[in-house]
């Protein structure tokens, strides 16, 4: 009987500690980039913690591509895109722990 009480108590304490501890968000290893513009994105790069990753080829209008990111510990990235019509998009503070999709729009 004492063994049951001790086992139950230890399980309750372990469960309470697991619930109370805030979980650290896990950074994404990939992001989905969506080009919702009517012109191709000629260059798209994502920078995080002094490192960057770029799409290997242009991203056509209304298409998606997955980009593998370097191994990082943070959640905030900066995105830079250049389009065929010489316009640019700069997104300096995106949280990829909350949303792993990057939308390029007009």
Sum up the structure in keywords:
single chain; 106 residues; alpha+beta; Immunoglobulin-like; four-stranded antiparallel sheet; three-stranded mixed sheet
Walkthrough of the structure:
The protein has 106 residues and is an alpha+beta fold. The protein has one domain: Immunoglobulin-like (Sandwich), CATH 2.60.40.2890. The protein is 18% helix and 42% strand. The chain is built from one helix and seven strands, in the order αβββββββ. The protein has one helix at residues 2-20; strands spanning 30-35, 41-48, 51-54, 63-68, 76-83, 88-95, 101-104. The mean pLDDT is 86.
- Overall 3D geometry? elongated
- The CATH architecture comes to Sandwich
Beta content: 35-45%
Distance between the termini: 69 Å
């Amino acid at each position: 009987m004492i063994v049951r009480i001790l086992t139950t108590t230890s399980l309750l304490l372990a469960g309470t500690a697991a619930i109370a501890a805030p979980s650290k968000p896990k950074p994404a290893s990939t992001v989905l980039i969506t080009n919702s513009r009517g012109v191709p994105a000629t260059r798209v790069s994502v920078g995080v913690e002094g490192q960057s990753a770029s799409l290997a080829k242009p991203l056509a209008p209304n298409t998606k591509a997955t980009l593998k990111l370097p191994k990082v510990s943070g959640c905030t990235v900066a995105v830079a895109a250049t389009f065929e019509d010489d316009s640019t998009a700069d997104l300096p503070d995106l949280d990829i722990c909350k949303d792993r999709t990057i939308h390029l729009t007009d």
